[in-house]
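tool_call predict_complex ligand=pyridoxal-5'-phosphate
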Amino acid sequence: MEQQIPYKIYLDETELPEAWYNMRADMAEKPAPLLNPGTHQPLTAQELDGIFCEELVKQELNETDAWIPIPQEIRDFYKMYRPSPLVRAYCLEKQLDTPAKIYYKFEGNNTSGSHKLNSAIAQAYYAKQQGLKGVTTETGAGQWGTALSMACSYFGLECRVYMVKVSYEQKPFRREVMRVYGASVVPSPSDTTEVGRKILAEHPGTGGSLGCAISEAVEVAVRNPGYRYVLGSVLNQVLLHQSVIGLETKAALDKYGVKPDVIIGCAGGGSNLGGLIAPFMGEKLRGEADYQIIAVEPASCPSFTRGKFAYDFCDTGMICPLAKMYTLGSGFIPSPNHAGGLRFHGMSSTLSQLYHDGYMTAVSVEQTKVFEAAEQFARVEGILPAPESSHAIRVAIDEALKCKETGEAKTIVFGLTGTGYFDMVAYEKFHDGQMTDFIPTDEELQASFDRLPKVDA
Ligand SMILES: *Cc1c(COP(=O)(O)O)cnc(C)c1O
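tool_result ok
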């Protein structure tokens, strides 16, 4: 007889992973290296050390160690909010009347409200170990900035956050949370940096973009001794730290002998998805098991489904390293109508390589459909989801409805990356019928592709 599975599968503290899992160690085709934007040569650890913390550079470049121990101080911090629950969505299953079994890993159980704290605390720890004074970063909607502020205050580091100007204005409460944790928050583009002043001169009145805030944060870190830049997604090191999500998920499922058929995650820069799938992808890469893995992205910012696999800048100011990834072009800025997050023009180079090699699939969804799914989920499962997370909910529901048609009882696992309490302006637009779906035309995308840097590699 099948063992009754509880609504929530909790692991206890002793079951918290002791090491992060590095998928790249098991990849036959490694992701392409970061390139120096000037010379187009692979960046050396020494060059990267000027931008990032030393230990994080080692992690960034490490393609050989499958397991990297989690330092005790980080595990101690994790214990305040981890292991996070894996929830069996019995109520959603019932409402959908589907034979599918749906699980979600909930990462919203901390003040920052998302999975980003998993990497923020690791990055702050290594900055502190190196004896730095502080770190700089960018934030879009504010989740990363909040997570990093919390992590920096815990270790007594200064934290300067360049916040995309539209969000700074639309989400004053996010900004105040960061200030509770002692961060200084600057709307971007700003006149505090050279690149900011240049962007302001070219686009007066712009609401900013993530790419532009990244340029500002990097400039400040590089010019001030004792400071380094940290990034909340896209990079290999961030996927590494987020593997704690997937490792816990797998441990919880293994307790009950459950093997997922489909694993779904939303994809902005790819960190939560890369973390959730990590141990499952490891099995897939080693030929031990097979899973269907689906990345979900907004139709208004479709990096995987309509982007080019090419070297590109991670920022608008074109001062960051070049990464080979699925990209819409670093000049691509999603429509201002887009309220669902996941606005970054590129994608993790690890996930890009895996997608390119056929280890995972991707779909894009329109935002009104995403908010419909968000609300459907909130009403039966109780949690008010972040718009980003709701992309995964949308596709989980769609997959469960397919099962209803075919009668298959597939096991579906998705990442519920966070809560949406700071996204009520977006929910308001949805309720008032003011939310529209925006899909860029092929011509618009082509114009952006035409500006990709020319790299022979
Ligand atoms: C930042 C964020 C995402 C997207 O970032 P990834 O790096 O792609 O994971 C998804 N969900 C929430 C709640 C976020 O804050």
